[in-house]
Amino acid sequence: GKKVTLPAANSLQKGANLYVIKNAGAYRFGVRKNGGIFICYVNPGQVVAFSCADISTAAGVWVAGGNNIETIHSGNTPEVLNSVDSRLISAAMLSATKAICAYKSLSTGFMEAVVLNFGSASGTPLAISAEAVKNISIAALSATKAVVVYQANAGSTNIKGYVLDVSGNTITPGAVKTIVTAAGTTGANGTFLAALSSTKLLLVYMYSGAATIKERVLDVSGTTITENSEVTADASSFSTALTSYLMAGTINATKALVAFIGSSSQMTLRLQSITGSTPAPSGAVLSISGVSAVQLAVTFGLVIMNSNRALVIRGYDRTYGDITAFLVDISGTTPVLITAKNIPADLNAAGVNIYATRLDANRAYVTWTGGYARGSDSCTLTITGDDRILVGEVSELIDPGITDSAWYISCAALDSSHVMQVSRNASTFLSAKTIEIS
Questions:
Q1: pLDDT at 26
Q2: CA 41, CA 28: separation in Å to the nearest integer?
Q3: Strands 200-206 and 224-227
Q4: Which pLDDT band holds residue 375 (cuts at 50, 70, 90)?
Q5: What is the pLDDT of residues 119-153, one digit of tens each?
Q6: CA-based, 20 to 30 A from 52: which of 185, 290, 378, 432?
Q7: How far, CA to CA in Å, does 314 sit from each of 139, 226, 241, 260, 311?
């Protein structure tokens, strides 16, 4: 928890202001600007040089130089939000200081939700559903409204949803809405929500007996959800073992990208056009091969960087234990693979569960479980103007003791330098902390 705070930049003289810091101890410490903004860690034995490029403000503009500089701050203590086993975690950003999280309480089987705050205490968890749930997904429509969907865990695989109104730390759910009726308890399942506007969402899902990935637009007025006609998002075959792991990303109000895992374990991407309240697949499907077919059930990351580029991040295979980031051109009607970058992640043989969020038009934050450090690790990815993927230094043990299972962590960027990360901690309880990104 120790830190070095650099002097007020506007108190320095013009010219070369250079500070060289060596960590001669056994613990890492942070270096921060005047005012508290995190720059980087200095790890034991490391030497880092800091130069000031702008002295017009007290914070200034500082440049850090050295090898393997760690720029993700994770040293703050997590906020423990409950004392029950919490799973199926899904988080969404409401504002620059607030997020909302939905999850399953294993003690009741019901879905609960809680408001998470950066800079102040978070809210108290509230039970939302009155039945056992699975496959939870949440998306924010505004700073005060979110929508959450889930599948019933017993008796049917119906997909249901609630509008959640947020005032301060108080969550007020509307009436439950049955969105998809799918009788039976066997077959493939999964849900994912992506907000198209302040009143529309794209719901991508699977249900018992379905042969293809489905989607429909949800219209929201007040606390009422109106479901529109079901559409096949893509007719490609899918991996029945991995069908729960599907995602969608909003490009704009009339365009989205759907991602799922194909029958041979390949990443499968299809652009969608939205006309009014009707989605439709556009162009051709992109199947990204090269990923090992020997995969356990693992989540992947999908980040829409800007209107032209998207990132897909997935565990490469179980033999080498690495992660691969794929850069995809989404400017037209068909997604096109541009390049890929390997991330040495020191994973164990059981696979990897990945979660990612957009920081700005060129940077993404990626976090995962499955490393030998026995917790969640993370890094940043930067996309250059000439379509190169730059991998930041991997930070280990963002949260320790997290079991490598799907939906045991989630994250949502609050702004370009703060990420709310939520996890099922080592005690199985729901925990949250704000990660600072230099």
A1: 95
A2: 6
A3: unpaired
A4: confident
A5: 999 999 999 999 999 999 999 999 999 999 999 88
A6: 378
A7: 22, 34, 16, 11, 10
Nearest alpha carbon to residue 410 among 379, 432, 389, 393: 432
What string of H, E and C letters represents the secondary structure of the chain?
Answer: CCEEECCCHHHCCCCCCEEEEECCCCCCEEEECCCCCEEEEECCCCEEEEEEEECCCCCCEEEEECCCCCCEECCCCCEECCCCCEEEEEEEEEECCEEEEEEEECCCCCEEEEEEECCCCCCCCEECCCCCEEEEEEEEEECCEEEEEEEECCCCCCEEEEEEEEECCEEEECCCEEEECCCCCCCCCEEEEEECCCCEEEEEEECCCCCCEEEEEEEEECCEEEECCCEEEECCCECHHHCCCCEEEEEECCEEEEEEEECCCCEEEEEEEEECCEEEECCCCEEECCCCCCCCCCCCEEEECCCCEEEEEEECCCCCCCEEEEEEECCCCCCEEEEEEEECCCECCCCCEEEEEECCCCEEEEEEECECCCEEEEEEEEECCCCCEEECCCEEEEEECCCCCCCCEEEEEEECCEEEEEEECCCCCEEEEEEEEC
- 168/39 Cα distance (integer angstroms): 31
Q: What is the pLDDT of residue 320?
A: 60
> Could you tell me what percent of the chain has a pLDDT over 90?
76
Residues 338-352 have a mean pLDDT of 78
Instruction: Give the model's confidence band at 405: pLDDT under 50 very low, under 70 low, under 90 confident, else very high.
Output: confident
Residue 230 has pLDDT above 90, yes or no: yes
pLDDT for 317? 60
Residue type, position 435, single letter: I
